[in-house]
Amino acid sequence: MTAPTTTEDCPYRRLGTGMDPLVVLHGLGGSSAQPISLLAPDVLRRYDVIAVDMRAHGDNRLPVVGTPLSIASLANDVMELLVALQVQRDAVLLGISMGAAVAVDLLARGYRPASAAFVRPAWLWSPSPPNLDAFARIGELLGEYPTNIGRRLFAASNDYRRIAEVSVTAAQALLGQFDDPRAVECRARLLEIPRSAPARPEALEGARTSTIVVGCDRDPIHPLPIAGALAADLSAPLVTIASRYDDPDGHLRALTDVLMGIGQGPKVS
Fold first, then answer.
1. How far apart are CA 47 and CA 40, in angstroms?
2. At 216, which CATH number?
3. What pTM does this model have?
């Protein structure tokens, strides 16, 4: 992976050999490595990828303590970065999970890329969606116990059990939150960000931004009904693809098809 480029706003990685800018935004508790791992060689040949580490994540060292952590504050950081890089109307915006919420908030702020793809959204328009309760519990445990004990307690919790009933792999993936070297330092991200929500874009008509929502079955953290409701509210097509947890290879192939197909069809307001 390329070394991060540091700006006043937030660090990012730039890779790919294509001409079309592709801005990728990661999920809660993740980093730019998450979406980069989902970019197939064909995608890297087509796009000039800008993978952002958002505040309290990855290599981002913007303040965490004493500063608001919310979808809105993350979107503000990203907007300042995109303005500094002069990445505007010709870009494709790809947001995954929390990144999808940040991408939606960017549209609400008037950012108008050529296309936007919202993958496995976890929010609609209300804060504290119950599908994210497990993140808050992890944040609490990180503040109360050493990480190894917190990990064990979470694995024995009802939050873990409820997720594992749908997908054991999804539940196991959450245990990775305890392994992050900055897990304790940045635990506020797991407590505060889910308490916020993206602003709803009001005027996409005539904006010439094509939008698409990508959801998955058997994903208890990113329920398919949320993806369906977001697609309906944005008048965007909904594409259902294989679960990242249960069929990672199928998920990668399907997401590649989505990214390679962007810009090849009619615009959706």
1. 11
2. 3.40.50.1820
3. 0.93
**b/e map of 77-115 (b: 16 or more CB within 10 Å)?**
bbbebbeebebeeebbbbbbbbbbbbbbbbbbeebbbbb
Q: How many CB atoms lie within 10 A of CB 249?
A: 8
Domain total in the chain: 1
Helix H or strand E encompassing 230? helix 224-234
- Whether 155 maps to a domain, the answer reads no
Identify the domain containing residue 251 by its residue range: 12-128+196-261
Write out pLDDT tens, residues 71-128. Answer: 999 999 999 999 988 887 789 999 999 999 999 999 999 998 999 999 999 999 999 9
Helical segments of 53-128, H only: 71-85, 98-108
